[in-house]
Amino acid sequence: MQIISKLPNVGTTIFTTMSALARQHQAINLSQGFPDFNCHPHLVELANQFIQQGFNQYAPMPGTIELRERVAEIIQSTYNHIYHPDTDITITAGATQAIYTTMAAFIHPGDEVIVIEPAYDCYVPAIELHGGIAVYSQLNPNNFCINWQDVRSKITPKTKAILINSPHNPSGACITAQDLIELQNIITGTNILIISDEVYEHMVFDQQMHQSIARNKTLAQQAIIVSSFGKTIHTTGWKIGYVAAPAHIMAEFRKVHQFLVFAVNHPLQLAIAKFLENADNYQGLHEFYQQKRDRFLQLTKGSRLIPLQCQGTYFQLMSYKNISQQKDTELAIEWTKEKKLAAIPLSVFYKNQIDNKILRFCFAKKDETLEKAADIIQRL
Ligand code: PMP
Ligand code: GLN
Fold first, then answer.
1. For ligand 1, atom 3, which residue shows the shortest CA distance?
2. Which ligand neighbours the alpha carbon of 236 most closely?
3. What is the CATH T-level fold of the domain 41-281, as seen in this structure?
4. First and final C-alpha spacing in the chain
5. Can you tell me which atom of ligand 2 is nearest the CA of 122?
6. What is the CATH number of domain 14-32+284-378?
7. Residue 95 alpha carbon to ligand 1 centre in Å
8. Residues with pLDDT less than 50, the chain
9. For labelling alongside 338, which of 181, 183, 274, 302 has CA 20 to 30 A away?
10. Domain residues of the chain, as ranges?
């Protein structure tokens, strides 16, 4: 049977590939982004409790009201914006599904979506599967700031959406209040939808604030915000996230959502809602990960890898230009096999595989894992 692929140039994701290689070669895995420690025991208890109490049938299509209310409260108390739980918030099976559903709901064939690169890998396939065209604007390669002049120059009558991601995977850069103003100047008076991937919203370091789109009333009117509990409560395997948007945008999102997943894991939504009643369970996250970042930087100090600035997320970029001139994708494989340390090459986040000799290391790991990784890094 002949199949005409809808994604002819797509293989297996780099995260799956590198984690499999790390397992195969018993390498320390700082490649794929996930914690190697467990979530809070109370969250496990709550999950058990709701399963035992019998919450094992379909949840309401937009998500349980308990979790939507919790999300609305957190957004209001953190970013001072009101989303109505009934109409403006939907619980999704993680951020990946939320982004895919957004593209399915809003992108018509021929529509252009501005994608800032380096870009997380699920964005462009989701755009292209719906006949959209990704139009790229590159971050400044030195500080990973958005070049707004370039973004503006890429706007055409076909621009349907701008996709931004802050805190940014893979660079760890965060947008500023000034960036929100720049974005506002660009979209005011247009029909451009902002798709804002904020999955690392609670991981911004060094006393900085996360500049959520929700902080800016004008932007929030034209935006769909995507987040994921996987990052916030150390449960990447639960695949539960949410989207927030004004009711008329959310109504379109839900039209697709109901046929793509219908509803999301019921008992786990209830467990998350209860767990997040205690604000310490998300407000302390940035300190926790800042300590991890600082520990990793301290442990690797004096090595031949050069760390780049990391303002948020759980990823640290390191330049290896003092060690090797090899292509980053090849070096990542070689180090996994031979040095027993796995990281993600940065070039895979660029359409044209731009290779600046940089690897991404995930520091969402136990201290002992970071110590073992640093031992290897010190010997490179
Ligand atoms: N966006 C970014 C920037 C990510 O790093 C990730 C991966 N964790 C996702 C979206 C997907 O999140 P989820 O696992 O909830 O689908
Ligand atoms: N977001 C994670 C990362 O950047 C990976 C998630 C996945 O494997 N799809 O490493």
1. 169
2. 1
3. Aspartate Aminotransferase; domain 2 (3.40.640)
4. 49
5. 9
6. 3.90.1150.10
7. 5
8. none
9. 302
10. 14-32+284-378, 41-281
